[in-house]
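Translate sequence into structure tokens.
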Amino acid sequence: MEIDQLKQSKIFKSTIILLALLIFGLLMDFFVMPWFVDLGDEKEMPDVVEKNANEAKNLLEKQGFTVIMADSVFDASFEAGMVVEQMPLAYSTVKTGRNVYLTVSIGERPIIMPNLFGISPRDAELKLNALGLKLKATLGSYSDLYPDGAVISQSFPQGQQIKKNTAITITVSFGEKPENRTIPNLIGKSYSAAKQRLEQLGVSIDKVEYEESTSYLPDTVLKQSLKEGTSITEDTKLTLTVSKLESDSQDN
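Result follows.
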């Protein structure tokens, strides 16, 4: 009896062990192994260069990758916020779940505004052009600190960061303001230069007349109604006669 009971007990234990091994094998086959296989899936890396960084991040994460914003660089070829470089490279075969490193553009490198004070307009223009900037306009004003012809102000302060091709306006000194203002000689000057000079002197242009001329470029002052040296008062006005091409018609 005792021997039979021992045999039955061993058979029962063996059956339990076999069932346990069978269940373990089924679990491994249907659940555990597929999970490991999935971790090793390979995919083609999508191309996210020239995409917005947020858009690229969302796209990669949806495909199971981990995105790391590795660096940001100045790059005139890419707008700020666009992906400049990715690692791994686009279209390479990689494991799902791996890290993808993105380099993002922060736009074009800014230019540091130089100091133009005290130099000539020509030197100022050359200095701006060398940095990729432009001279937009040149104004004039009297100055007790700077000699005639020297730059006395600029539209952006020295050291300010500005974009390439920004147009800069400068103001140039006329020298010290004379106590007795008189009408200058404007003949032979361009109309725009004559107008600017008169504005600085507080003189209004009452009228502009046009006269055909083959000796002067268009818009050159040929005559002025007040002679050079005439004292200027608060209500001083004058008429300018300006050249035009033959058969040219312009409104006064």
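Note: The chain has a mean pLDDT of 86.
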